[in-house]
Design a protein that fits this description.
Blueprint (H helix, E strand, L loop, with lengths): L1 H16 L3 H10 L3 H10 L3 H7 L6 H13 L3 H10 L3 H11 L2
Helix pairs in contact: 1-2, 2-3, 3-4, 5-6, 6-7
Length: 101
């Protein structure tokens, strides 16, 4: 129930503080704190897990960070979608013009 989610988030906070990022992110995810989970997955450079929970993300900042990583990796279609979701339309358009024509 909701008490379990709260406990997961509290434990995640402790684990994050001691830099146990993979475990912290997993517990944030279990506690339905997806933005926090994504933020911690990014700290751990686990972009695959960020992609897995992207549909639950509400923070434009997280979408933009994810988009920048996709762009670095040459995943331009994914980068464009993430920039759009993060409301960074200038970069979404730039990606489309430079890489997706």
């Amino acid at each position: 129930g909701s008490a379990n989610k709260v406990l997961c988030r509290e434990c995640a906070g402790i684990l994050e503080a001691i830099k146990q990022y993979p475990e912290a992110a997993m517990l944030y995810e279990k506690g339905h704190s997806y933005d926090k989970a994504a933020h911690v997955y990014m700290k751990a450079k686990n972009w695959h897990k960020v992609a897995d929970i992207l549909s639950h993300i509400t923070s434009p900042k997280i979408y933009i960070q994810y988009a920048k990583n996709c762009e670095r990796e040459g995943k331009f279609k994914e980068a464009s979608r993430a920039y759009e979701a993060g409301k960074d339309y200038d970069n979404a358009i730039r990606i489309n013009l430079e890489h997706l024509r």
